[in-house]
Structure formats: structure tokens, C-alpha cells
Amino acid sequence: MSRVVVVGAGLGGLAAAARLAALGHRVTVCESAPTVGGKLGVVEREGFVFDTGPSLLTIPRLLTDLFDDTGGPADLPVTPVDPACVYRFPDGTEMVLPHDAARIPAAIDAALGAGTGESWRRLHERSRRLWELVSEPVLRQPISLARLARMSVRPADLAAVAPWRTIDGLGRGAFTDPRLRMWLNRYATYSGSDPRRTPSVLAVTAFVEQEFGAWYVPGGLRRIVDALDRRCRDLGVEILTDTTVLGLETAGDRVSGVRCADRWIEADAVVSDADATALYGRLIDGAPARMTRALRRTPCSMAGFVMLLGLSGRTPGAAHRIYFPEDYDAEFDAIFGPDPRPVVDPTVYVHAPDDPALRPDDDSEGWFVLVNAPAHDPGRGVDWDADGVADRYAERVLDVLAERGAHVRPRLRFAEIITPADLERRTGAPGGAIYGTASHGPRAALRRPANRSPIPGLFLVGGSAHPGGGIPLVLMSAEIVAGLIGPAGTTQASNGGRRAAAAPGRRLRARSKRS
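and the corresponding C-alpha cells:
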């Protein structure tokens, strides 16, 4: 049996820990916070319960696979979110997208006019080919230059991936209606990026959400973490909370363990669920210069400004609502421009689940409100801890909601604010840039840190590493790392992954909506 230490008990760290324990390794997880979960957090106040991370689940099959591979199904039912989302555009038009992809063209026609649904269908079918190209060979496997190169020499594959095109450019070519272009550009924000700089291949996120559907876990998505925590403990994983890792130790050329404030833990392999920038910049003395240089050159992703609203009364409608601004480009200019600043007229995302488990009574509801924001950077950008900055911006967000038809101030019981600075403290993501690095430029996929570090025995999991952020991709990263380390007692396990094993890699068929 080999000893593996996992740094960080976010979703990626726990998923990797469960997989490795099921493969026979002795696993210890070190988490600096008093509870597990990382970005999949929860806040409870006055009888309200708020998820503070992702609010919907796509590709639930990945979650099923995780529990099946580590001991059997979990008591974790998922339900379809229908409608999946309501989009309110600057001209007042509302577009209601259903859970089922087959009904989407008619819904778009009803909202935006005859023929617009067909343009969505054409893009969706094109994206199906893109998903087939990237789902198994790219997203569910370690980064491989050879595999990506093979794509580039096949003209049809190269045309589908189109590394020279951005998401914004894809939308301009696919849609004549500016509202649909606005809708597509939003998917760049799933990786914390600017759609005018994000490669069009990442528009496959829209395909995944519509093809596999939007799903919810009754009681909140935090239940995923709770179920995974139980699974880890059932497998014998030792989870140490309130345990900050101060650094990684090496012996010769490889990782030998981790150093905490009150102990030293020896390890044959270390899996880091910490942000890659923090790992290479702070936890490793003498980290490879090429890694630290690459991370310094790559811009951080956007952060988020969050408001948790406890409201009296109920508002019928979709659980997920997006309110777009007049000038979407101005939002990205404010966040990624040379002078970062809070967005004056931001896109506002509202998650208002109709879930009795999350509210104190039937005459109330909780809203999770999110706007894109520049990272916390007191030296060169926005200091979200400065006096009055957060409170003033919260008032501005409430004003924007009122201007767009969602006037909640008369119903407000309380508003709890989570700034990018708070996100940095809670999750360890530098500046609160919870998506890691921004996916800008045609080589964005190659710049994301690999799951196998240049330092033998060190592996990376979670949203800042390959293949990226969001529940499905983080679960894929855990699967990849478990494949790289391999079962306890094998050659690659004893060598800390010096020889890579193939990731399990079940095929995710594009036409499947199995939960």
C-alpha cells in the first residue's frame, strides 16, 4: 500500500481521494478550512440555506461513475431543472430555454422570431462533432501534444476545432440576432474568460448544457460534497480539517511529503487540489521556473461578487435567471482592461431554487445573486476590502435588478455579501479568481497546468488544472489523476506516476441524457 496525501478537500480533492482509496492507497486529505467542500460551500442564516458554488449539475453520469467506481451508488438523487434558464435581454425580451434540447428551437423561435431556433440547431449539431472530438481524447485524458497535433492534420477536425476563432467570432458567424450572440458569449464566463479572446472550442460548454440537460440535487448541490465526504471516510480516507499545508518536501528529485504547522506527513505521491498558482508560487521551494513563468504570464480569470438574499414572499418563475446589460462588451472591458474596476452595468445571474429544504417557511425564498467581477488586487486593481467598496457595489447590484424588473428591496430580510477578497480567503484562489487562469488565446488549453507535474510524484486536480473548472471537468480531473497514479502495488503507483496509466475514460455519448 502506498501513501498519498491530498492537499485540499474541494470537490476535486475528495473525488481523487475516494478513487485512490478504492484503488488500495492509504490516503490522507489536508484541508486548511474547518469544513470540506472548497468552492462547493454553503451558508446558513436565519433558516435560509445557500449553495455558494455551482448551482446546477451537467453530465450527472460523471457523478454516478464516481460513486459506482468507489463502492456503489450514493443516496444522491438528481432532478431535471425545467425550464433550465430564463434570459432577459436589454430590450425586455425573455427567452425561456427548456431542459430538453429537442424543445429548444421552438422556444427560441417563440422568444426571438421564426428562424432563430434553426440557427441554434445548426450550431448545436456542429458542436456535437466538436464534443465527439474533445470529450474522450482531450477532456478525459492527460494533456497530450501528440493527440492535439493529430487533430490539426485532419482538415475536417481542424475546421471543427477552429483554434483561430473566438466564441464571439463563432456567434457572429452563426447568428444574425445579437441576442443569441449575447447568449452564446455568456459561456465564456463559465471559464472566467472574455468571449472575444476565448477559443471557440470552449463553446462546447453550451452544447453540453443543452444536450445533457441541467440538473439539481434536492437540498442543494452541497449534498454532493457531503455524500463524497461520507464515501471517503467509508473507504478509510483520513480527512484532517483545520490543517494548513505550509509546503511540499522533496527527496532527491521527487516529492516526499507535506509539511503542516503541527506535523510532517510522508507521502509516496501528493495530489494538489490547491490553486496551481498557489502551489507553484508558494508551496514548492524551487518550483520549475517554466511553470512559474507561464502562470505569471497567463491572466487570472474573473472573480465573482456574490449576494445571498433572504426574501419575504415568493416569486414564481425559473430557478435560474440571467439579466443581460445594454453593453456586454463593456463588462469584459471593465474586468480585463488595463484599469480593472467593478462593472457599472453588469450581467446579473440569479439562482432562486424552489426547494423547501432551503427556506425557513413557505412565505420566503433565498436568492443567490452573482455578477462577474475583477479579482481582488489592492496593488494594481480593485481593493474589495477597502472601506465602503463592497456595500456600495451591493446597492448598485440591487439597483440593476430593480431596473430590469426584479425589485427585491421591499422584500429584503437580509443581504450577505461575498466579495472576491472573501473568495480568496475562503477558497485559497488568488484574488478570488475561482476559475484559475483565463482561457484566452488559441493555445489556452495547453497553458492550463497539467495533471502530472514536472516534479515526480506530484499531481494536480481541480478547476485550476486540466481540463478546467465546473463540476464535470473537476470530476474528470480526479479520474485522470487516479489513472496516472494507478492501483496500489503497481509499477506506476510505486513510482508516484512516473509511468502514466490511461484514465478510465468511459465514453459520454452526445445523445445521452441518462442521470
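(Above: one complete record from the training split.) The longest helix spans residues 116-139.
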